[in-house]
């Protein structure tokens, strides 16, 4: 089964990388890849949509917003090469889901165990703000990943946009969503029957630099994911 899941995810990855559905996002990601940031002037930027990354047998999926202009859009791997990724992979490592706490580039040796990381939108958007239309065009890729990851038991959403994207994807896939709809809050936990949904603020600099999100509060979400997975195995 793991081999077939890996093949499905590889096919989804190829379709994501080839996507040019949103002209605004295409223009932005490619312009950033040419202009670059001074500290990365010697890099050859990825400059394409960024696919998900992780274990095809994952029981945990983490859904973020979109690649950073000089993070995933530069390195080609989600949450890699930026400060949000520093927080995420450190937390995953501490909870036993990653073999190392850092993620700097595609060849850095990072591997995930029982976890898969993806995003609501696959291209770096101007101002980190995709439009509703862009999110809708990108959502089928999330549907495909959720379907391919057949062992999922826990979903962690990073931020309100990822929370809404996941619940919308559930509805569109014919899966149950509680009524009234759950409300996003950091640390919130919802049992949806087939999966546990855990909510976290996004580890963006806007949240981490202001103290809205602390490392202990962020780590607690992934420690909870580990506990919930242990219960599902029992």
How much helix, percentage-wise, in residues? 40-55%
Name of the CATH first level: Alpha Beta
CATH fold-type name: Uracil-DNA Glycosylase, subunit E
- Number of extended strands: 6
Sum up the overall morphology in one term. Answer: globular
Neighbour order of strands in the largest sheet: 1-3-2-4-6-5
Uncertain segments: none
| Spatial separation of the terminal alpha carbons | 22 Å
How many DSSP helices? 8
Instruction: Examine the secondary-structure arrangement and name the CATH architecture.
Output: 3-Layer(aba) Sandwich
Write out the CATH superfamily name: Uracil-DNA glycosylase-like domain
Give the biggest sheet. Answer: 6 strands, mixed
Describe the structure.
By secondary structure, this protein is an alpha/beta fold. The protein has one domain: Uracil-DNA Glycosylase, subunit E (3-Layer(aba) Sandwich), CATH 3.40.470.10. The protein has eight helices and six strands; from the N terminus they run ααββααβαβαββαα. It has helices spanning 2-18, 23-35, 72-75, 83-94, 132-148, 160-172, 205-208, 215-233, and strands spanning 53-54, 60-64, 115-119, 154-158, 189-191, 196-200. The protein has a six-stranded mixed sheet with strand order 1-3-2-4-6-5, with helices on both faces. α4 packs across α8 (215-233) and α5 crosses α6. The chain is globular.
């Amino acid at each position: 089964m793991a081999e077939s899941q890996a093949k499905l995810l590889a096919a989804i990855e190829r379709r994501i990388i080839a996507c040019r559905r949103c002209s605004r996002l295409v223009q932005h990601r490619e312009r950033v890849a040419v202009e670059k940031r001074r500290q990365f002037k010697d890099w050859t930027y990825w400059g394409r949509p960024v696919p998900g990354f992780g274990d095809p047998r994952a029981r945990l999926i983490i859904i973020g917003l979109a690649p950073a202009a000089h993070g995933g859009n530069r390195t080609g791997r989600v949450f890699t090469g930026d400060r949000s990724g520093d927080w995420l992979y450190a937390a995953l490592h501490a909870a036993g889901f990653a073999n190392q706490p850092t993620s700097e580039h595609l060849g850095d040796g990072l591997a995930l165990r029982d976890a898969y990381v993806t995003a609501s939108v696959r291209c770096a958007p101007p101002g980190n703000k995709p439009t509703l239309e862009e999110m809708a065009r990108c959502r089928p890729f999330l549907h495909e990943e959720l379907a391919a990851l057949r062992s999922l038991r826990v979903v962690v959403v990073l931020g309100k946009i990822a929370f809404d994207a996941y619940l919308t994807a559930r509805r569109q896939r014919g899966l149950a969503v509680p009524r009234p709809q759950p409300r996003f809050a950091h640390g919130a936990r919802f049992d949806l029957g087939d999966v546990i949904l855990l909510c976290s603020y996004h580890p963006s600099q806007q949240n981490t630099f202001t103290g809205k999100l602390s490392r202990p509060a962020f780590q607690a979400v992934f420690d909870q994911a580990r506990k919930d997975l242990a219960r599902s195995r029992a």
